[in-house]
User: Fold this.
Amino acid sequence: MARSPNQKKKMLLIRNFFLENTDPTHPTTLPDLIAMLEKEGIPAERKSLYDDIRVLREMGMDIESHGGNYYLAQREFTLSELKMLADAVSSSQFISERRSHQLVRKIEGLTSRFERQQLQRQIYISHRSKTTNEFALLNVDPLHQAINSGRKISFRYFSYTYSFSGQRGWKKQYHYDGEYSVVSPYALLWDDENYYLLGDYPRRGRICHFRVDKMEDIHILSESRVPPPQDFDAGEYARRTFGMYAGDESSVTLEAEMELANVFYDRFGRDLRLHQVDDRHFRAVVPVHFSGVFLAWVFQFEGRVRILSPQKARDAMQQTALRILAAEKKT
Assistant:
């Protein structure tokens, strides 16, 4: 048989056909492959297809055959893994809604068109709080470069404020009147659906964190960064910083009901040591960055968790409770 001018595309077309149109519940046949190739102007015979499929298997494609039916049995990602990845992208506050849609479409391309339908039904993006900073995702690459090269960075940092007069709505407000902040970057940390940069911040004189989606005009500087402390641990920093609201670091002794042991495990990790008080209660000393968010965490248990020490933590808890009561009496 004379070779078609398109013959060089043959193997790639067969590979793409298996990726797009087959899975364990949707096999194809050699006549299907011949028909597909003929539409592309490429004549093919069964014998040549056997050789092509053999080569694709040798190249790592898990093509199985049963009774004349052929299909791609396994892929790089399972459908359940793709659902998890797509939902993580969709729910992430760090990624804007438009970019979430773009990324989910790319994730969908990693499976067959049949499983893609299940994946699309799985994902719900609307009505979730999302960043409006379309360039947030682009911030990640220069931050990784700076961390890997050990260089300082400069950037402008902003928050959102609401204007109740004139043109009402949310507006950016730059910190330090828009001046650039210089930071020695140490790590990127994902916490509570947001991405944070951890690094040494001379203005504060300690390690701080910054929301990546609230950073603008990032520049990698030629100056080497301040080395991180030998005991620096990004995971430990996250465990101590509730809701990424930093406060003074402190060791707090808590007493809680036994049924909440698993809650403490999830929050503080397996290295936390519990000490039994009686049949119903345990105590634990937890290192935290003391803040209102930590107090809110304790409040949610409605008295089933108590702060025992230090006294300033107990006082802060009581004062917060009194402020809440006073505010309620005004309504």
Observations:
- The longest helix spans residues 311-330.
- The CA atoms of residues 245 and 320 lie 17 Å apart.
